[in-house]
Structure formats: C-alpha cells, structure tokens
Specification:
Elements: E1 5-6, E2 15-17, H1 28-34, E3 40-43, E4 51-53, H2 81-84, E5 93-103, H3 106-116, H4 121-128, E6 135-147, E7 152-156, E8 159-162, E9 165-172, H5 176-196, H6 206-213, H7 217-230, E10 232-237, H8 243-254, E11 260-265, H9 272-275, E12 277-284, E13 287-294, H10 296-305, E14 312-317, H11 324-328, H12 331-334, E15 357-364, H13 375-378, E16 382-385, H14 390-399, H15 405-418, H16 435-454, H17 459-464, H18 467-482
Parallel strand pairs: 10-15, 10-16, 11-14, 14-15
Antiparallel strand pairs: 1-5, 2-9, 3-6, 4-5, 5-6, 6-9, 7-8, 12-13
Helix pairs in contact: 3-4, 3-5, 6-8, 16-18
C-alpha cells in the first residue's frame, strides 16, 4: 500500500535557507495554496524545503549551484525585481512540505491532479503529454509570513548574491484539525489510485465491483439504483461486515469517468461547525480575529459545483457516532428539498446542495443501534443492511489454498449463538493473506475480546468459543493450510 512519506522539519522564526521555485510558470495552484484551498502540488522533482509563494514569475527565487546563498538575475524577466520584491508584497506566504508521494505515470498525474488540485483539464492534459519519467506529489502546509528584505552580499560579473530568504511572524493558514483531515483525504485518494489505476483508462464496471466486494452484480445494481434515486444511502450492520470497504467501492463505481469522492469520519465531538460552517479564530498580525469558515460539507459542495453534472460522493464513516440532528442542522431540510436554497445559521448568501452530490454513510449497529437515529433523519436516507458474507470468506480462503468449510461452519455457529443481527461477528477479521498461520492470534487478540462483550451475560457461551476450545475443531484445517 502506498504510504505518505513524512518529512521532519523544524520551523524557526525567522526561518532561513535556500528555496526552490515552484514551477517555471506559476499556475492557479499558487493562488489556491496561498488561500488555503488546496494542500498539494505536482512537480517534476521532490520538494524537500520550504518555498515562498509568489504572484509573478519575476518574483521566483531559487538557489543557484551548490552553494545555495543567492539567486541569479538572469532568471528574472526584470533583474530589478530582485531588489524590491518585499516592498511590492509579491511574497507573503510560505509553503512548507510535510510529505510527498511518488507518482509512477501520467495516468496517475491526470487523475490525482483533477481530484486534488484546482488545475483545469486542459492544463493537466497539456502537461501530461510531456511526462517521460516519475514525478512527485508534494503535500504542503502554508503559513502567512512577513518577508525580510534580502541584503546584497556581492554584485558583479552579471550576478548578484543576496542573503537567504527569511520570514517572520509565521501564521498557519489552515487549522491543525483541518490539516490532519485533509492529510487523511490525500492519503486515501493516493491509495485509491494505487489500487485501481494499474492501467490507463481502466473502467471500474459492475463486474469489477462484484469481483472486489463478493456481492452479485444484480444485488449491487439494486444498491446503486437506491443511491441514485435517493442520493443518500446508509450501509449498516455489525463490525467487520465491510461497510466502509463497500462504501468506497460504490463511490468509485459511481464517479467512474468523472467526478470525485471524499471520506469524512464522524465522532462524538464532531459538530455543526466542523461539518457545515462556524466561527473560527485566526491570528492576524498578532491579533486574534474570528471569521466565518466553511466546514467539510460546504467545501465539498463548492468543489462539486465545478464538476458539472458528474457525480461527487461524500462517504461519512461511522455516521451515527455524532449527534446527527446537531451536526446536520439546516441540512436536514436541504437533503430532502435540494432545489430550495435557504440561509444557513451563520448568515451570508443562501445555500443549496448541488444535484450531483451523493452521500454514503456507514453505521455500526453493535454498539449504537439504528433505533437511536431519529425518524426525521432516517426518512432522508435509504438503508442497506450488511450481514456476514460467507461466500466472500470462502472464496478468499480457496484462493489461498485453504479449505473453507470448517471455519465457515464455526462462524455460522457463533453468529447463530449470538442470535442478534446487530451484533453478529463480522468476517473481515479473517480476510488476511496469512490467515492459516495467523488464525490463533486473530482469534485470541481480536475475536475473543469482541465476543466477551457480546456474551458478557452468558459466560457459558463465551467458554464454548475460547481458542482453547475451537482450536481442536480447526487443527486439521490449519495443518492442511500450512503443510
């Protein structure tokens, strides 16, 4: 699995050092970064050091040679810009790299650029045509800064060397909580492309969806039809039934050929301000100010408006862990009446949910029943119950040369003994590559703690399914698998 490679940096005030130019020709990503709208750039070489953002190509500064102590005037359309850039306010933001990904081919560039950057399709296509080697996606954090006027160290011989770039009063543009959320979204987008972009132009059709999820094409088509009709769907069931896994692949199927998808995780402290909009503190020139900031859903909808009619899917993982009535607010109305814009609590212009926005929620029923979701919210979603998919597990085991009958029979017995569809033992515990050798660890370290909670008032039943009891039933199965 592709993983974000982190870069450890220590920020000092002032922050000094040589800096690389972003691109030869600054594009819309520069303005978007400075405004905090995006966090990524895609460029030919990995960016390892902080970098000033500018508004004019004449203000591009980068270290020359190996010394890294200045800039060459020949790199500017007007060498005089090198003397007055700070006074003209061409640089007032600093982008600091926090991680990077290696993009293996042009197909990745086109797909990720369209999803993660403000570039137009024409700009992406024209750049992709010239890609001949691996390039890099760099994740950045932007700071407002006060640039320090550079001092000339030496002139002559057609060169002017100046003191390394310095800034003061670093102020983050994006709050820490929002930064972490965006980092997760970028990581998820790259992983999604790593799983599905093995060949350029590959189509994610219903057969591929069925092969990956283990459900029949007819069943999946029915769920997709539900989603397209209602535009809000919740997958619910006990843990380990693959709700998030299925939600991600339904979203991928829906946006195949255009659009995009994102995932947000709800939790007990998630609020209306996080999801819709709210007042957030900002430090401006050393003083504390409060501004109305868009939440995750509003930013998602604003991005979806630029996608035309292409479907855009927001996955809300563990949707019932938050206080839904409080988090959704006016969205309770807008989810049902999308064509009627209304004013939000924070004021400003009226808002409506774009017609191309789809919501997929996942709901764990083992510890928070669906009954806890009020009827007003339930009426706005279509629901799909997921139960343990035994054929999927059997197929997984057979593909690894493991006879599935004994384990499948044991799990059916466990779930029959539990006797509650909301608390059944899911099968994702066993969907691992080395299940034959890892089964003892999986059962003792993951399955037993779950069953202890389910059977807390039935100790006799719990004793039946301790590893010391079930190991004998699976001994031949494990031996056969490892021989």
């Amino acid at each position: 699995m592709v993983q974000l490679k982190s870069i450890r940096l220590r920020l000092d005030k002032p922050l000094t050092g040589p800096y690389d130019r972003l691109l030869r020709r600054p594009g819309p990503e520069v303005a978007a970064l400075a405004a905090g709208e995006t966090m990524v750039i895609i460029r030919g070489t990995r960016l390892l050091k902080a970098m000033p953002l500018w508004e004019s190509v004449a203000a591009c500064y980068y270290a020359k040679g190996t010394v890294g102590t200045g800039w060459v005037p020949g790199d500017f359309s007007n060498a005089q810009q090198a003397e007055g850039w700070a006074e003209q306010g061409l640089v007032n933001s600093l982008a600091v790299p926090v991680g990077y990904f290696k993009l293996p081919n042009a197909a990745w560039v086109g797909a990720l650029a369209a999803e993660l950057t403000p570039w137009t399709a024409q700009a992406v296509e024209s750049w992709r045509a010239g890609i001949e080697r691996d390039i890099w996606l760099t994740v950045l954090r932007v700071y407002r800064c006060a640039p320090v006027q550079p001092k000339f160290l030496r002139r002559g011989m057609g060169q002017q060397l100046v003191r390394s770039f310095e800034v003061e009063q670093l102020q983050p543009v994006v709050l820490e909580s929002e930064l972490e959320q965006r980092m997760e979204q970028i990581q998820e987008a790259v992983e999604r492309h790593a799983r599905g972009s093995t060949r350029a132009g590959a189509s994610y059709d219903i057969q591929t969806l069925a092969a990956e999820t283990g459900y029949s094409a007819a069943q999946l088509k029915g769920w997709v039809a539900q989603l397209r009709r209602k535009q809000q769907l919740i997958l619910y069931g006990p843990p380990g039934t693959g709700k998030t896994y299925l939600a991600e692949r339904l979203a991928r199927y829906l946006v195949d050929g255009g659009g995009f998808s994102q995932l947000v995780q709800f939790h007990a402290s998630y609020t209306y301000e996080d999801f819709v909009e709210g007042i957030r503190p900002q430090v401006v020139e050393g003083a504390l100010h409060y501004e109305l900031a868009a939440g995750h859903f509003l930013r998602f909808c604003n991005k979806a408006r630029h996608a035309g009619e292409k479907p855009c899917v927001l996955i809300i993982d563990e949707i019932n862990r938050a206080n839904l009535a409080r988090v959704f607010g006016e969205l309770m109305y807008l989810l049902e009446y999308r064509h009627r814009p209304i004013a939000l609590a924070g004021g400003g212009s009226e808002f409506s949910i774009p017609a191309n926005v789809y919501l997929i929620g996942t709901m764990n029923t083992a510890d928070r029943s669906i009954a806890l979701v009020d009827q007003a919210m339930r009426r706005r979603f279509s629901f799909v119950r997921l139960r343990p998919n035994y054929p999927l597990l059997a197929n997984h085991l057979e593909n690894r040369g493991v006879p599935p009958e004994k384990l499948v029979a044991l799990l059916k017995e466990v779930n029959q003994t539990i006797g509650d569809e909301d608390c059944e033992l899911g099968l994702s515990f066993f969907l691992v590559a080395d299940i034959a050798t890892a089964l003892a660890h999986v059962w003792q370290g993951e399955v037993e703690p779950y069953l202890e909670e389910v059977f807390f008032d039935r100790p006799d039943q719990m004793a039946r399914f301790r590893w010391s009891k079930v190991a004998g039933r699976l001994q031949d199965w494990v031996c056969d698998a490892t021989s």
